[in-house]
Amino acid sequence: MQHANGIAYTTAGPQDAPAIVLSNSLGTTLDMWSPQLEALTQRFRVVRYDARGHGASTAALDTVTLDTLGRDVLAVLDALNIERAHFCGISMGGLTGQWLGVHAGERIGKLIVANTAARIGSFDGWAQRAALVRAEGMAEVAAGAAGRWFTADFVERHPRSVAQMTDELRATSASGYAACCDALATADLREAIATIAVPTLVIAGEHDPVTTVDDARYIAERVRDSRTVALSASHLSNIEAAEAFNAAVLAFLAE
Ligand SMILES: O=C(O)CC1=CCC(=O)O1
């Protein structure tokens, strides 16, 4: 694991291949991309990183905004001397991707934003969640995570994958998680995304209760060079519908 400005990252795949950066969701780590690694490293240099406050990232947590999360990606690209990379982010990572499309489009080849929205949740909802984990730690948020992240059917059929993800969430630093809740509380790109000029794929989960198919449509209707695909999955569609997710990403990158 290497660090750039306190952001932990790792690379895999051929060094001279085009790079793709993978950006995790709230309460997960770069390990969430394991189901994508084999497929993507056939053709890409895959750069995974732990979002600020998560996993092995040690970056400061005083005032974290969406701007901070976006600039963290640029710091990783700079550390690797990568001028331009594809970017695939899920949920909070997808919001980070939209920020990059708006503010640093010249650094992004193609953009994939999955299970995300231009504005996720509400200020009050995120403020309450941040206060909860700051006061009481991760237990309550982790207890409800399976139902936010996966369909009941997936939870029943894949208990080990689900437990791995919820254990990881339970182990997430409460202050890191809360700092990212703060960022989500104020992140609102509903108007700004109309300026995104990067070719964009918007992936939705048909059963996602957090960021809906309508949220995906909202993005696609405003980003001029965009297409959408809806997968039979809940929120963490890269895990629940890994094969279809990989196929959609690879087809888009091959266009
Ligand atoms: O609430 C959750 O755990 C789902 C989620 C919202 C933003 C994000 O990245 O994950």
UniProtKB/TrEMBL annotation:
A molecular function GO annotation: 3-oxoadipate enol-lactonase activity
GO biological process: beta-ketoadipate pathway
Domain of life: Bacteria
Start and end residues of each AB hydrolase-1 domain: 18-241
Pfam families cross-referenced by the UniProt entry: Abhydrolase_1
Coiled coil regions in record: none
PANTHER family tied to this protein: BLL5160 PROTEIN (PTHR43433:SF1), HYDROLASE, ALPHA/BETA FOLD FAMILY PROTEIN (PTHR43433)
Protein name: 3-oxoadipate enol-lactonase
Organism: Trinickia dabaoshanensis
Lineage: Bacteria, Pseudomonadati, Pseudomonadota, Betaproteobacteria, Burkholderiales
